[in-house]
Design brief:
7 helices, single chain, 163 residues, mainly alpha
Length: 163
């Protein structure tokens, strides 16, 4: 039995405290499921027709907290299983695409698949860039004009002020 399975078993065998009055209702389990799936609390309250106080009390309940943990662990296990499945299927998918690249009836399909392989291998096509270069003579005239204005302002400030 894996560590995750042991943890799930321990969460399933919850000892109920007198203040918690037994297991969660189906409605409370649905609230937990929605929260674990990523639905925001305001939407959960609206969809499940519960108040702020009810949701806050539920969130403080140790049985509800354990249900959240249990569902999160199950979700994480599902993600690991999915990643494992994708890793197992990837070589087969690569072989299918490679066969298509060689044997597809459509020239465009073969070219697209070959381009995709090249792109993923780091051989993407060169991209053209257009630069709009302003005439440097005109730019120089503008800079000279600006320098003249700056010089005039500096000289104006350097003049002795009449008293």
């Amino acid at each position: 039995m894996s560590d995750i399975e042991k943890e799930i078993d321990s969460l399933l065998n919850i000892q109920f405290e007198p203040s918690n009055k037994g297991p969660l209702s189906l409605r409370h389990r649905e609230v937990a499921r929605r929260l674990v799936c990523g639905q925001k609390p305001p939407m959960v309250k609206q969809d499940m027709d519960i108040s702020d106080v009810q949701l806050n009390n539920l969130m403080k309940n140790p049985i509800f907290q354990n249900e959240i943990k249990r569902l999160q662990m199950l979700r994480e296990e599902d993600v690991r299983d999915l990643n494992k499945s994708i890793a197992e299927i990837a070589p087969v998918a690569l072989t299918v695409r490679e066969n298509l690249m060689y044997k597809a009836g459509s020239e465009k399909l073969r070219a697209d698949i070959a381009g995709d392989f090249l792109d993923r291998a780091g051989y993407s096509p060169k991209r053209k860039m257009e630069l709009d270069v302003t005439d440097t003579g005109e730019m120089a005239k503008g800079l000279i004009g600006l320098m003249g204005l700056i010089r005039a302002k500096v000289e104006e400030h350097e003049k002795p002020q009449p008293e």
